[in-house]
Amino acid sequence: MESAAEFIRRLNPDVQVTHLPLRLDRSNALELLADWDLVVNGCDNFPTRYLVNDACWFAGKPLYGRLLLFDALSMEFRGIRLDRNPNCSLCGARPTVTALIDYEQFCAQR
Fold it and tell me: What is this structure's pTM?
């Protein structure tokens, strides 16, 4: 984490980086997001990505991040834009996700 913070400081010394040395889970996600105006998605795994998305939704915080495809042969990224799904279990017409979930059991590698 410290190397990432240092890299960001070199890019823009006006950016304040706050290191929170703890594991994000459903018991602390809403509390951790409470003090921030927006959240930037830098998650490196699906359970955390889904938890951050849900926490931002429940907290009413904007979440910034992109869905990208990477072609290693051509070394190219391609952005993907998805339309809102009216059947979404979180934000759809009839949501079934009504509280934060720890997604490890849903995203387990088989």
Answer: 0.75
